[in-house]
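> example.struct
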């Protein structure tokens, strides 16, 4: 909503700081109200997303939540706030960089592999785009469905258009309706393997026919060249 609100665009530094302070205060009040009425505990961290951002990082815990960090981890809550901020600033996710080509490449690749790991249960598995139909679908009985139209099925790093890689990334993130991993039934795997075998047989047959055609062409050229040579000798000429 904020990203689409014209009034929230092109804010100056002080305006951003004012809005963030108001948002933090609002969230803190909501957490405190929730604790009072329901007895729940809550902790809030608000940090910078990039080293060049000017937002002041802050934290808040309902009731005595801050004691949790020292009691369990033997470290103050502020220490975790600092570590969280350091981690966030290495993600290249500020407003100017979050949708850069390189960043979205990494996001899309991570989403694809993460889904593949979740479906297969193999943490060391890698995605194979060149032999996807055999190495992934046939071997593990899973496949990516609803790949975005207009986007070539290839490694995200090979997609060089920002608009297309964003389209893929967004489809992968919204797994309820769009691009996601799906498991195949044994019957579906069998159909897939049959189709692969048919494609391989057709390719082999085409290659064999092409090879035979080349052999015929070579033989014809050889005979024609031999005939020209014999004619030249007969006429006392040498053809170069």
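> example.seq
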């Amino acid at each position: 909503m904020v990203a689409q609100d014209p009034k929230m665009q092109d804010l100056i530094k002080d305006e951003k700081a004012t809005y963030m302070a108001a948002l933090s205060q609002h969230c803190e009040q909501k957490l405190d109200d929730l604790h009072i009425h329901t007895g729940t505990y809550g902790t809030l961290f608000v940090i910078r997303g990039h080293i060049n951002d000017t937002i002041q990082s802050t934290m808040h815990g309902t009731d005595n939540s801050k004691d949790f960090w020292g009691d369990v981890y033997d470290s103050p809550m502020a220490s975790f706030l600092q570590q969280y901020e350091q981690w966030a600033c290495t993600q290249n996710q500020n407003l100017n960089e979050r949708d850069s080509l390189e960043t979205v490449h990494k996001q899309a690749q991570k989403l694809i592999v993460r889904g593949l790991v979740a479906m297969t249960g193999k943490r060391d598995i890698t995605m194979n785009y060149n032999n996807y139909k055999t190495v992934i679908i046939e071997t593990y009985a899973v496949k990516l469905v609803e790949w975005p139209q207009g986007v070539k099925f290839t490694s995200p790093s090979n997609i060089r258009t920002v608009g297309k890689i964003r389209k893929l990334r967004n489809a992968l993130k919204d797994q309820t309706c769009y691009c996601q991993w799906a498991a195949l039934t044994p019957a579906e795997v069998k159909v897939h393997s049959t189709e692969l075998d048919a494609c391989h047989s057709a390719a082999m047959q085409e290659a064999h026919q092409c090879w035979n055609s080349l052999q015929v062409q070579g033989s014809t050229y050889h005979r024609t060249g031999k005939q020209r040579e014999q004619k030249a000798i007969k006429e006392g000429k040498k053809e170069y």
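> remarks
The chain has a mean pLDDT of 81.
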